[in-house]
Every structure is written in C-alpha cells, then in structure tokens.
Amino acid sequence: MTEAKLEAWLDETRVFAPSPEFAKQANAQPSIYTDAAADPVSWWRKQADRLVWHKQPTNTLEWEIPFAKWFSDGTLNASVNCVDRHVAAGKGDKVAYYWVGDAESDSRTITYQELQDMVCQAANALTELGVKKGDRVAVYMPMIPEAVVAMLAIVRLGAIHSVVFAGFSADALSSRILDSDCTFVVTADGAFRRGAASALKPAVDEALESCPNVKAVLVVKRTAGDVHWTDGRDHWWHETVDRQSTSHVPEFFPSEHTMFIMYTSGTTAKPKGIYHTTGGYLTQVATTQDYIFDLKPDTDILWTAADIGWITGHSYIVYGSLINGITQVMYEGLPDSGGKDRWWKIIEQYKVSILYTAPTTIRTLMKWGKEFPAGHDLSSLRLLGTVGEPINPEAWMWYRENIGGSRCPIVDTWWQTETGAIMITPLPGITATKPGAAMRPFPGIGVDVVDNNGDSVGNGEGGYLVITHPWPSMTRGIYGDPERYRETYWSRFPGKYFAGDGAKRDEDGDLWLLGRIDDVMNISGHRLSTTEVEHALVGHPAVAEAAVVGASDDTTGQAIVAFVTLRMSAGDEEKDQAAMIEELRQHVAKVISPIAKPRQIILTPDLPKTRSGKIMRRLLRDVAENRQLGDVTTLTDPTVVNMIADLMDTHSSGDE
Ligand code: PRX
Q1: pTM surpassing 0.90?
Q2: Domain 447-517, what fold?
Q3: Residue 574 has what pLDDT?
Q4: Residue of 319, 422, 513, 521 to test ligand 1 pocket, by largest number of atoms within 8 Å of CB
C-alpha cells in the first residue's frame, strides 16, 4: 500500500452506529464484552456447552506457552456435532445446503437427514478402504457437496483431513501429501468453470508418482471426461460409497484429538502444516458465527462465498455453520459463471440473508458495475461480512450501498488459518462500524498492538498485532515441527502470539488491520510467501537469481512482481524476452498454482544487494509500486536499482 493511500484510508472517519435491529437480539448485550473479559476461560467453557459432548469436560484450559489444551478430558465426535445432533433433534428435513452448480441448470438440495446418510455411507466406504483413526487423508476437490461429506466422514472416523485447494498444482499437492504422510486421497475427475470442464484427476495421478504411501484414491465423477485409472488404487465414489449402509456408529475422541491440517504459506519456501484439534476449534467456530452473524437458525440462509480449500470454508461453510444447524448456499462456480449478475441471481433466488466474502471479490464486482446488483431483489440480505485482507473504505461503502441497500451492517472479520476462527470483528448490534476497520477483539479474545519492544501503543498509533492469551481454536502447532511453531509465532514477543500483521489503533481505540509486515503476500485473499515464489523461479534452469515482492494492486489487493536474473549461456541474448517471461510465469503456475503467477516479471542483469550480499527487497517494492526510492547508500552498486526501475517500464508483462 502506498503511503498516500494509507493516509487517505486512515483519515476515513465515517462511523455507522450499531444496528438497532440487531440490538434487539438476545445475543447483542453489551455486557458480553465485560463478562468475557472478566474471566475469558470460564466464558469459553460456557460456550463449549454449544457442543454435544459424549463426556463433558471438567478441565478447561491447560497452558504451557505456546502449547494449549482446551477441554482436554472431554470426548466428542465432530461429525455427530455437525449432523447427527440435528437429525436426533427432529430437524432432519431442514435444508443443510442449497448447492448451486457452475451451470444454472445444476443444483441440489441436501437436508440434514440426507447429509447424515451420505456422511455415514462415506465413513463406511473409507473404513472399507482401510482408513483408520489418526490416518491423514488428502482432499483435493471442487466445490461439490461430496467435499463436505468427505471432510465430515474423515473426522467421524477420527482420521485427519488435509484439504488442498483444487487450484494448486500437482507439485504443490504432492509436497503436502508427503509432508503429513497422507495415505489416502479423495478427489474428483474434474470440475466446472464457466461452463467448461477441467480435469483434476491428472494432477492427482502426477502427484502420486512421488507419493508411494498413498494406498487408495476415492474419485467422485463430476464431469464426463475420460480418466486414467490405476486398478487397485483408484475407486469411484458412486461404486464404493453409494452401496454402503446409511448407518454408522460413531466413536468418540478426546477434545484434543487432531481434526485437520491446513497448509498455509509462511515466510519460507515450504508451506506450514497448521493443525487444529476438536473441542476448542468447534467451540470457537460455532460461537463466533452465532454472535457475529447474529444467527437466526430458523430463518437465515447463509452464503459464505469461499472455497473449502481455505480455512474460511472449513470454519464457516462446514463446521461452524453445521454445528449451528443453519441452511446455507454452497456455490461451485466463479462470480461470472453464466453472467456478471450470477451472484445476485443466487441471492435473489435463495433469499440469502447473510453474505460473507472477500474484499478482492467485492472489488471485482464493483468494477463490473452497480447495474448488475441493481437488477435484482436483494432485500433478503440483512448482514454482510468480509474476510481475508484489509478492505478499502471505497469497497466497503460500495458493498454497503449497492449490496446491503444501506441498511445491512458490515462485519469486517480478521483472523487467520492459525487462529482457526474469527478474532477481531464488530458485533452488529453492539459496536459501531467504520469502513475499513475490524474494530474490536471478539469477546474472550485478547489482542494488543505493540511497538518493537513489545509495549502497547497508544490510541492513534500503529504497530504489530499480537494476541495476548490463548483462545480455544488456536492452532496446536505446525504438523511435525513444534520448534518451528514456537519460533515463528512465539519468539518475536515472548509470551504473545505474533500474527505477522501490522495494525493501528485509531483515536477511539478501534482496530484497523494494515496488512502483513513479513514476507507473506496476500493475492486476492490467497496467502503466498515471496520465498515460495522465488524458490519456484530459481527452480527453472534458466534462472540464476530471483527476488519477489508483493506490490499493491487495485483489484487483487497485492500482486506478485518478480525480478529475475538469467543464467547467461551462448545464444541467450537471442532469446525473445517476452517468451522467456511467459515461460517463467507458466513455470510458477506449474510448481505452485496459477494464483501464484507473477503479474510482472522483470528480467534484469543484476539485483540490488547490500554489501553483505542481501537482496534489498524494500527497494524493489519501491520500484514495483513506483515510489521514490528509499535509502540506497548501503547498496554495493546503487545504480542497479535505477537500472531496474528503467527496465520496469520497458520489459514487463502481465495479463490477468
Ligand atoms: O494478513 C491477514 C489477512 O489474511 C491473513 C491470514 O490469511 P489466511 O491464513 O489465508 O486466512 C484468511 C482467512 C481467515 C492475515 O494474517 N486478513 C484476514 N482477514 C483480514 C485480513 N487482513 C485485514 N482485514 C481482515 N479482515
């Protein structure tokens, strides 16, 4: 973000009062903040009563920095909490998901009873394939109901899912499978995107060439394409799952039993396997969703427009929403599958009352124009949410006026894969909202903004965001690497969780999130590390050295800009630079994902380095954002950076 933009952003002083409609809700009592702050641990223990425990916990928190245990002597089953409890309570006929396909003609309605039947069948099928408690199962699926069913069936058995976003490449999938030693994979033959089928299974086949421990692959038939089949290893879902019994007797597991692993980018080339356990995670996802969205389970239709391949999908399409027993829309396609008003058609048709999405999507919808939402009846909406990156006030206001009819409160929710659930947010009936501010820590959560020495900053000042005490849905660590967990999150400010984000307290003490202060980039709400992309680039035989920075971008929040020096060999001068740049972009897509393709690649004979040989990324960021260059005196050759700035104008490339 440029300085000027930041200033303009923070100057925004508009305040919207708490919504009286929400203040009427039993949930919306201001004392919630003081009660929770007086004794957060007991407050969370009360919230844990939202869950169906097989054995009630008597322990609440055991805390040995940085390792927490919540409700450790309780036992429960996550899938029973999501599904069986509602059927047992006589709500089997209630719709769990209105699934909306990429094509307008494609839809399914799944009740809680049907969901329970499918989950039990899938659990029986996975058992037949050999899945047992503690096994790691990779899920590489498009947004179809079977993805949710697979996740619930896996945790029902006490196995651990590792959902890998289906947009990741074969290489990214195999490295994730290997890191946590997954022995099973659930996938689909393909997916639909704007009406076109695209294959998914070939990426699995390619990934598994280097994963000899994978014993079985369960494949949903989603498209009509031909698939390569490995007999003995591959099993069709419709042949293996559909013939199973719809009853399955669940086992109960300790609260601290690991439920899932979710890989996310940190500051190194290797993504971290963030893992979450059961009781604490489920308690916080259900509690936050209930209070923040002020849920009315009998009437609300929630649409969390995210992918189950990310934490938002896990917490607020699957676990939180199902525990709360609400009805949701789950959408397979892109925002413009079938036309630029597709989203608004869906909201109108299903009478969506709560929409939860990412700023990058809001900015895209905004670019398309307000005439698209204006052509539809969006009066069913009563609350809007955003997540994933800082939202600029302009997008916030557009969302409020054009989607929320200037009546729906907006909750800007800050959280991370590591936090498991929402941590900073307004509560619609209690707190005011400000365009661009996430406002306040959720009740029972301790947040601070500190300076370099770890001391709290005052109102009107900025610093590092830290979390001051343990919370139920906090990650229990990095899978297989407890030291890296301690080092990454708990060493910068001893005793405090260091989130990696910058934040500011405004004059009223409200919180504004300012983006990452480390080498993590946020591209359209997708988290990627600069090192990960650099690593991919230097893996190309023509690349000698690469430096990657995240530059601000009006639509995607940040965009990847790469500075690359090539290995010189005879004839290289002849090579077409544009072709080389395109080859490198495709290479990054192949190694990581199309979402990691640099917007621009600048081929340069040299990179700016300090005398100790460190690449000055700060200066490259200045170049990438067209800013005046900072201090260049520590460079070995200060002219390099000006040369790169000139190259930026001549040799850059970028499509999407
Ligand atoms: O930088 C923050 C940003 O997204 C990061 C977490 O990314 P991930 O683990 O992929 O989870 C995203 C979905 C929960 C954070 O470190 N971020 C997330 N929400 C916000 C945000 N930045 C500003 N405002 C938000 N509401």
Answers
A1: yes
A2: Luciferase; domain 3 (2.30.38)
A3: 59
A4: 513
